[in-house]
Design goal:
Elements: E1 3-7, E2 10-12, E3 18-25, E4 34-39, E5 46-51, E6 57-59, E7 68-73, E8 78-83, E9 92-100, E10 103-106, E11 110-114
Parallel strand pairs: 2-11
Antiparallel strand pairs: 1-3, 3-8, 4-5, 4-9, 5-6, 7-8, 9-10, 9-11
Length: 116
């Protein structure tokens, strides 16, 4: 079955960095686009970044452009989100997602807290 497992979240001070990872299993990872979403308390889940099968990337939130970088390693079935210059407003639960066979599959999420 499809499984996505995120890791790498934690507590970081403003201006710090974190690298999130999502390991996928249960499908042919290299043939599907991958996305990172985030959800802050009291808000809707929002798309942060996506990466295609060829490595093309897009960032859906202007606030993360230039600070976040999405990447994938097909040999390791992993998609990563490098987050630099973190701000308190980046605090959220971060999820990876794949759209596969007309369904969205989500990981369990990893908490990122940016606070001094």
């Amino acid at each position: 079955q499809v499984q996505l497992v995120e890791s790498g979240g934690g507590l970081v001070q403003p201006g710090g960095s974190l690298r999130l990872s999502c390991v996928a299993s249960g499908y042919t990872f290299s043939t599907y686009a991958m996305c990172w979403y985030r959800q802050a308390p009291g808000t809707e889940r929002e798309l942060v970044a996506s990466i295609g099968t060829s490595g093309s990337v897009s960032y859906s939130t202007d606030s993360v452009k230039g600070r976040f970088t999405i990447s994938r390693d097909n040999a390791k079935n992993t998609v990563a989100l490098q987050m630099n210059s973190l701000k308190p407003e980046d605090t959220a639960v971060y999820y990876c997602k794949v759209y596969l066979n007309y369904l969205d599959y989500w990981g369990q999420g990893t908490q990122v807290t940016v606070s001094s």
